[in-house]
């Protein structure tokens, strides 16, 4: 791994003055995770993407110059493949959001103040506009124009399932009441998405949990699993909804048995520390419209820590 | 029953998710549209009667309106789904058997969607763009082992080595390019 980093840095120095390639990659991975787990479209990081693609080209050039049959070459090439996967997965994810919520996103774009940054890159904006036009055209020619006159318009609100969401939010507000939470650095919380939506990707990022059972401490866990980077990528692909995470200070542990909508129906185990009052709150919790049924096991601190190597 | 045809249409679509797309059901679509027209006319009659002073018709109007909206929703859903998905599965050119099942407007829509996507992908990054339909899965292994199902001839791997892909031979090769061949042309099966 260190070898690859070196390689990255070498090729990065020519163009990048402020950031090394490694940093760009880390930023990009962060953006990718945030995008993947956020229901909203986040700000576009097209500069990172562009920079990374340039780096890939550079690395490919370097590889061409390298000795044939050198083992290092294969490893570098795999690293390139991985980076390319991250970049395209990131862009695909954004594209899917744009396609699914075109009207909403375009509406937001229109309402945006001049000084705010646009969430879409110029290319994405063109795409969203084209997409919306072509789609409306398609639906009009095939069905809408044959319908009775009062139904011919394409009312965007009908396609959004707003009602369910509204109910959910109310229920939760009842549960918690009004509460002011201080978000301190490195804290991890379970909370609804809506109130923190503006912070997402800026002062906050997705906290990553490891799906393996053996790791008990969240932060430890991250180190554990990063042993093999690809296992992280894999687990990210399998987990649709991660539910997480909490405080380090209290003495209770619990495991969330999580429903995984993946076709394997694999259940993942998360070990997290949690404060007892929050436990009540989590059972039968609904998150992003997905029911998460939780089975909880309590342990005392001392017993679990003994399972860590 | 009101809206039954529309539901049937959606069911049909749902059944074909895993397999290949069923032919565009023009008959059903026309029937639904006719049902909608009939409902609408009935509604108009009742509404004008209500305006003229008759009472007790209003709940009927509401019911019919709900049926109208439901029909509309189902019909739009039928038109919307799966064509987009095929662009990602098959690439820019549709296989003939799939094309055969689409109606003309759907083919046009596919073409437009295809063009849009291609334009977008070309505009990513400064140079030449990035094909987003590739690299759908994270790379796992450095090498993959493949067995050729069809004679493919010579194939140049990324590092410039030339592999001859003969039928029933097994090759161990570097991941990236051969993988694409596997997905695209299905000439090889990954072991």
Please give the number of β-strands of chain A.
5
Query: How do the SSEs of chain A run, as a string of H and E?
Result: HHHHHHHHHHEEHEEEH
Share of residues in helices of chain A: 40-55%
CATH-defined fold name of the largest domain in chain B = Methane Monooxygenase Hydroxylase, Chain G, domain 1
Cα-based radius of gyration of chain B, to the nearest Å: 26 Å
Strand content of chain A: 5-15%
The CATH architecture term of the largest domain in chain B is Up-down Bundle
In which order are the strands of the major sheet of chain A placed?
2-1-5
| CATH structural class of the largest domain in chain B | Mainly Alpha
The largest β sheet of chain A comes out as:
3 strands, antiparallel
Please name the two chains that share the biggest interface, counting residues whose Cβ lies under 8 Å from a Cβ on the partner chain.
A-B, 47 and 45 residues
Question: Structural class of the secondary elements of chain B?
Answer: mainly alpha
Separation of the first and last Cα atoms of chain B? 52 Å
Number of strands of chain B: 5
Helix segment tally of chain A: 12
As laid out across the biggest beta sheet of chain B, the strand order is 4-1-5
Shape of chain B: elongated
Number of domains of chain B: 2
Bin the strand percentage of chain B. 5-15%
Q: Residue ranges of chain B: pLDDT <50 for 5 or more in a row?
A: 183-191
Describe this structure in words.
Chain B: It holds the Pfam family Sld5. Chain B: Keywords: DNA replication, Nucleus. Chain B: It is found in: Nucleus. The complex is a heterodimer of chains A (309) and B (191). Chain A folds into three domains: 2-100, Methane Monooxygenase Hydroxylase, Chain G, domain 1 (Up-down Bundle); 108-159, Methane Monooxygenase Hydroxylase, Chain G, domain 1 (Up-down Bundle); 162-305, no CATH class. Helix content of chain A is 51%, strand content 7%. Chain A has twelve helices and five strands. In chain A, the strands form two sheets. Chain A has a three-stranded antiparallel β-sheet with strand order 2-1-5. A two-stranded antiparallel ribbon of chain A has the order 3-4. In chain A, a hairpin with a 2-residue loop joins strand 3 (285-287) and strand 4. The longest helix of chain A has 30 residues, at 71-100. Residues 1-16, 157-179 and 204-309 of chain A have low confidence and may be disordered. Chain B is mostly helical and 191 residues long. Chain B has seven helices and five strands. At the A-B interface, helix 3, helix 4, helix 6 and helix 10 of A face helix 2, helix 3 and helix 6 of B.
């Amino acid at each position: 791994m260190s070898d690859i980093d070196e390689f990255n840095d070498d090729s990065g120095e020519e163009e990048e003055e402020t950031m090394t390639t490694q940093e760009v990659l880390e930023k990009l991975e962060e953006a990718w995770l945030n995008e993947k787990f956020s229901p909203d479209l986040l700000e576009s990081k097209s500069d990172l993407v562009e920079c990374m693609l340039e780096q890939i080209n550079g690395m490919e050039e370097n590889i061409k110059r390298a000795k044939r049959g050198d083992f290092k070459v294969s490893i570098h090439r795999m690293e390139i493949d991985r980076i390319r996967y991250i970049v395209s997965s990131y862009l695909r994810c954004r594209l899917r959001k744009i396609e699914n919520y075109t009207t909403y996103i375009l509406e937001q774009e229109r309402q945006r103040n001049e000084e705010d940054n646009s969430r879409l890159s110029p290319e994405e904006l063109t795409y969203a506009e084209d997409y919306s036009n072509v789609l409306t055209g398609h639906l009009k020619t095939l069905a809408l124009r044959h319908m009775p006159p009062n139904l011919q318009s394409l009312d965007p609100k009908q396609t959004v399932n707003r009602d369910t969401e509204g109910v959910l939010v109310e229920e939760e507000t009842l549960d918690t009441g009004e509460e002011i939470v201080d978000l301190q650095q490195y804290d991890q919380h379970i909370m609804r998405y809506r109130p923190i939506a503006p912070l997402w990707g800026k002062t906050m990022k997705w906290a990553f949990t490891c799906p393996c059972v053996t790791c008990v401490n969240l932060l430890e866990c991250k180190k554990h699993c990063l042993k093999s980077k690809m296992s992280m990528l894999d687990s990210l692909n399998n987990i649709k909804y991660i539910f997480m995470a909490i405080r380090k200070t209290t003495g209770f542990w619990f495991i969330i048995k999580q429903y995984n909508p993946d076709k394997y129906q694999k259940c993942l185990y998360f070990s997290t520390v949690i404060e007892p009052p929050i436990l009540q709150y989590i059972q039968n919790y609904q998150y992003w419209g997905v029911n998460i049924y939780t089975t909880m096991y309590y342990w005392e601190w001392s017993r679990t820590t003994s399972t860590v190597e | 029953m009101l809206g039954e045809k529309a539901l049937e249409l959606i069911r049909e679509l749902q059944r074909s998710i895993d397999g290949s797309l069923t032919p565009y059901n023009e008959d059903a679509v026309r029937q639904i549209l006719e049902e909608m027209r009939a409902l609408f006319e009935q509604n108009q009659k009742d509404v004008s009667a209500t305006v003229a002073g008759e009472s007790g018709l209003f709940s009927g109007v509401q019911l019919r309106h709900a049926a109208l909206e439901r029909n509309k929703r189902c019909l739009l859903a039928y038109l919307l789904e799966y064509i987009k998905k095929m662009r990602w599965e098959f690439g820019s050119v549709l296989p003939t058997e799939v094309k055969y099942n689409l109606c003309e407007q759907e083919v046009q829509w596919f073409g437009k969607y295809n063009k849009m996507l291609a334009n977008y992908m070309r505009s990513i990054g400064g140079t030449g763009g990035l094909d987003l339909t590739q690299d759908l899965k994270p790379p796992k292994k450095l090498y993959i082992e493949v067995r050729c199902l069809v004679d493919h001839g010579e194939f140049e791997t990324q590092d410039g080595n030339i592999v001859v892909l003969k039928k029933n031979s097994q090759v161990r090769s570097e991941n990236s390019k051969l993988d694409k061949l596997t997905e695209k042309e299905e000439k090889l099966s990954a072991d």
